[in-house]
Design a protein that fits this description.
The protein is an alpha+beta fold. The protein is 47% helix and 11% strand. Among the domains are: 122-140 and 224-301, Alpha-Beta Plaits, CATH 3.30.70.270; 310-372. It has helices at residues 4-13, 18-34, 44-51, 55-62, 90-102, 122-127, 149-158, 163-172, 216-238, 260-276, 311-327, 329-335, 341-358, 360-372, and strands spanning 70-76, 82-88, 134-139, 241-245, 248-253, 287-289, 296-297, 300-301, 308-309. The protein is globular and about 75 Å long.
Length: 377
Amino acid sequence: MWSPHQYRAAAKEKGLSDATIEAAIDQIETVEQGTPELPAILSLNHLATRARVPYQYLRSVVSRSEPSTYRKFSINKRSGGRRFIHVPEPPLAHVQKWINRFILRQVPVHKASFAFAPGSSISGCAARHCGAHWLIKMDITGFFESVSEIQAYRCFEELGYQPLVAFELARIVTVGPLDQSPRHRDPVWKVREPNAAIPSYSSGALGYLPQGAPTSPMLSNIVMKPVDEEIAAAARKAGLIYTRYSDDLTFSTPAKEFGRSAATDFVHTVGQILAAAGFRPQHRKTKIIPPGSRKIVLGLNVEGTAPKLRKEFKDNLRLHLHYLDKFGPAEHAKARQFETIWGMKAHIRGLIDFANMVEPVYAKGMLDQYEQIEWPF
């Protein structure tokens, strides 16, 4: 909580003009009226002070002149191709975590969005589709990379931040223009005029959300909220339940008479909504699953009254624990081509933790076996 009277008195002691003081108070109250939990940010210098990051560093990040903002690498996708990862360097990661904690995580997202938001889970998302007879699954191509700094800017501006601050926040949470965005050839992503007010902020092309930044998940959800609203309205009209887990869109209905023709028409409708917002469906991942076929949502079986782990998942975990007990961690890590025993141990523990979110009783039995393994450390 804050007091305008105390703020005004302190500002006068520092010699600030009445116009500057009143403008600052007005900006603080604008943000608080929109979402009271959000912190006021009056300038880039103010952000630097609040987040405890050097101002000149933030200035170089915003102007895209800082040479070492991200560590970049790529990994293989299970579906083929490469996924580009941008890991922010410590000072940038620090301010992004501050923005994520104090701004982005305070903003409500659409109820159909289950990834990244507080209290959301894979099992909760999958549970929405239990008992479905028809299932439609769609995927967005290059989800984070399709969100431009203009969309990020609009997000911060709509939260009440004044335009320059919104622009600077957008630059901090986006990566400079590279060819790894699926929209990099889109003419609307080209900057037509330089920044006349602050020439050092000029850039020839728009940045986008980097996969690997702590701000990208929640910011993508906030940007997607109006899209989620439009898709949810179309789903209701078609008699479908809609959920989105990051870039995975799922629709379902218990009505056996829904039909493949209706499903195909609906896929086309969703594709149009996504395209209008600047996103592209990954058509080869679109699936229409009719009655009688196995229903899997986010890796979980939703054919019963509650989500269940797939048989393949349980078989894989059982074999891991069996061979660990029979041959020991070193031999099993070598046979399964893990780079380190530590990495294998963390992977298997991750599988058990995932199982615990879905079937806690089963997971406890697996954890007991896991803890009986004679690990070398």
